[in-house]
Amino acid sequence: MSAPTPPPAVLVLGGTGTVGSRIVSQLLSSQSAHPTTILVASRNGNGDNNPKSDPNLQNISFDWHDTDTWTNPFSTAAGPVKISAVYLIAPPSLNASSLMTEFIDFARERGVRRFVLQSASSIEAGGPAMGKVHGFLRELGQRGEVEWAVLRPTWFQQNFATQPLHLRGIKEESKIYSATGEGRIPWVSADDIAAVAVRALTDAEPPNTEYLVLGPELLSYDEIAAILSKILGRRIVHVDLAPAELEKRYQDFGMPEDYARMMSAMDTSIKFGAENRTNDAILVMTGAAPRKFGDFAKSVKEVWEQQA
Ligand SMILES: NC(=O)c1ccc[n+]([C@@H]2O[C@H](COP(=O)([O-])OP(=O)(O)OC[C@H]3O[C@@H](n4cnc5c(N)ncnc54)[C@H](OP(=O)(O)O)[C@@H]3O)[C@@H](O)[C@H]2O)c1
């Protein structure tokens, strides 16, 4: 008697990052509802940040910029793999859209039917960078050639604990730098983005739409600083910089010039109200209320504690 065919796998590109690692752990804990192999892709293929040994999890080495690695998810040591859905996270570069659309076609030729893209609230379909990939998926979807979803999350609550500009600023100087003035953002939890992603990857009914993934409260950086001051028991100050000063600061932390310019320009848009809205997408998609910034900050407050 031949061995039973394993159910199709889900490939999580960027599977060791802030959102990807959470998608992986949520997929693992919902195995009874969605039995599947989870392929966790990153450049070194070590699966950092993810459980090391689970029979349903395989770590894959994949580099967007090295097309030789693109076959790795489709053919592991255990043999050929049938992949049903792919979660797409762009590499940190402004010119990755053509690589990404090329990979989507590559994966379609190997039988992948569903693609879920992580874009950003600030980027419309057809816009720059991931907007082009968004437009490409929507077009394929309109022709019935793929099942698709695009997640457009706003700014992550986790940025304050992971991005060097914020993490070191808060820890070492008790300061948060931005160029957003009094502009407000509906800060979203990466756990909630992952929960929406899991639904989009695994629901029997294909989403074939985009989701603006927003958190529950509109908070300016001044208000974030006040919340952190209360939780940390010391004064955290928001320093409102000119865009050029913020751009320089990002570069001092190792960010390429063009990316730093884009990040700084996004702060100017926030200043003039670009992120000043919220919605119920997380509640509708996951059935749970979106997480609040203060609860996140309390849960990780040790990362901002200063050495004695
Ligand atoms: N942070 C925000 O507030 C925010 C808001 C909206 C949208 N976004 C978007 O979210 C995306 C980032 O998501 P994230 O924060 O969850 O990711 P992240 O924590 O920055 O992690 C990036 C992931 O991609 C992998 N990676 C990096 N370079 C790669 C390459 N060349 N080839 C293959 N894999 C590569 C990394 O693993 P290795 O380094 O080990 O390869 C890691 O798993 C970006 O597209 C960003 O624009 C972010």
Description:
With 308 residues, this protein is α/β, with parallel strands linked by helices. It has two domains: 9-153, NAD(P)-binding Rossmann-like Domain (Rossmann fold, 3-Layer(aba) Sandwich), CATH 3.40.50.720; 155-188 and 215-276 and 292-301, Alpha-Beta Complex (UDP-galactose 4-epimerase, domain 1), CATH 3.90.25. The chain has eleven helices and 13 strands. The protein has helices at 18-29, 97-109, 130-142, 159-162, 164-173, 190-202, 221-232, 243-252, 257-271, 281-286, 293-299, and strands at 9-12, 38-42, 57-61, 75-76, 79-80, 83-88, 114-118, 147-153, 175-178, 184-185, 209-213, 219-220, 237-240. The strands form four sheets. Strands 3-2-1-6-7-8-11 form a seven-stranded parallel beta sheet, sandwiched between helices. Strands 4-5 form a two-stranded antiparallel sheet. It has a two-stranded parallel ribbon with strand order 9-13. Strand 6 (83-88), helix 2 (97-109) and strand 7 form a beta-alpha-beta unit. Helix 2 packs parallel to helix 3 (130-142), helix 7 runs parallel beside helix 11 and helix 8 (243-252) runs antiparallel to helix 9. The longest helix is centred in the C-terminal third of the chain and has 15 residues, at 257-271. The protein is globular, with a radius of gyration of 20 Å. It starts with 8 loop residues before the first strand and ends in a 9-residue tail after the last helix. The site of NADP nicotinamide-adenine-dinucleotide phosphate has 23 residues, from helix 1. Keywords: Alkaloid metabolism, Oxidoreductase.
